[in-house]
Amino acid sequence: MKSISRILAGAAALCVAGATTASAQEVTLRIQTHYAPETPSGQLAAQFIDDIQTMSGGRIAVEMFYSSSVVKSVETFDAAATGILDCDMTGGAYQTGKNPAFQFVGDIMGGYDTPWQQYAWLYYGGGRDAANSLYNEYGMQLVGWWIYGQESLSSSAPLDGIESLKDWKFRSPPGLETEIFASLGASPIVMDFTEIFTALETKIIDGADASGLANNVGLGLYDIVSHATYPGFHSMPSDHLACNKSVWDAMPEDLQRIMDVAMQKLAFQTALTFEVKNNEAAAMLREKGVTLHEWSTEDRAAFRKAAQDAWQGWAEKTPEARALVDSHVAFLKTLGLVSE
Fold it and tell me: At what angle do helices 40-55 and 253-288 cross, to 10 degrees?
């Protein structure tokens, strides 16, 4: 009997040792973002990295690459999917060339008014499952969003309403935005996020859709141009954390939970930070002589109509796009942002 007891005790010890080894599994993640480390978003990303490394007791280690230093911003997703990187901290809208459906997990233009409404779709409106149906097709897993609020257009000429868009030559991200602005008379030029400053400086473009007001200040745009739209209205990108699905699936559940919780903190802190920083930036820019243009209710409504008309055209491009557009429209109706 003593012999059997010893065997059972030894087996139990081995099980405990195995469990301890599994729980102590370490992961090193190579992550790229398009943000520079000195911008508010870059600083928030650095805090997220510190959070997951600290909460995991060092079991998650991160090699962080800022300013798209490994591959171009638009190539980050593929670099993660193919193993050059592990995770992508840019945004889904860069992948519309793969599938137009990515527009509706990247930048639902002319849709939600606030980050909280957009997060509500993700966490309460069935958005995360709907989005991951798309991401998983390309070998990626959506972990979460970090949304800084409405973007501001920056320009060397006044942008005081719909009419001022006529012949306005500006940097645009790829995707739906180019069609919406072209329909309103503008001349969008697609270029990488990292090329904006030089393109403005050399007058290749007259303005840019880059980021929120505070990030634009961090990029130095208002050292070159002296007009901006504020508060913003046209675009509220969902920057994402998306990871290689094989890498994600191989992570122990506790580390996945840490990533998820830290991502929700990043989402919360991003929205709060930019509520303050955008207003601080606005006050500073006015003192500096930059003119901030607040569009009228009528002009905003005209933009929203043009955007939502364009959604339906994009929805017809692929079944995945149709599914996401229908999901957003249904949820926007519950919020009273889209009429029946």
Answer: 160
Handedness of CA 244, 193, 279, 65 (dihedral sign): positive
Number of domains observed in the structure of the chain = 2
Range of the domain at 98: 27-149+237-276
User: Which residues have a Cβ under 8 Å from the Cβ of 197 and sit 6 or more positions away?
Assistant: 219, 220, 221, 224
**301, 313: one domain:** yes
**Residue after which a domain boundary falls, among 226, 252, 276:** 276
User: 224-276, pLDDT tens digit by residue?
Assistant: 999 999 999 899 999 999 999 999 999 999 999 999 999 999 999 999 999 99
For 292-304, the pLDDT digits (tens) are 999 998 998 899 8
Q: What is the pTM of this model?
A: 0.82
In whole angstroms, give the CA distance from residue 312 to residue 145. Answer: 24
Domain identity same for 138 and 82: yes
Return the DSSP state at 296: P
Report yes or no on 2 lying in a domain. Answer: no
Residue where the block lists tokens 């959070």: 51
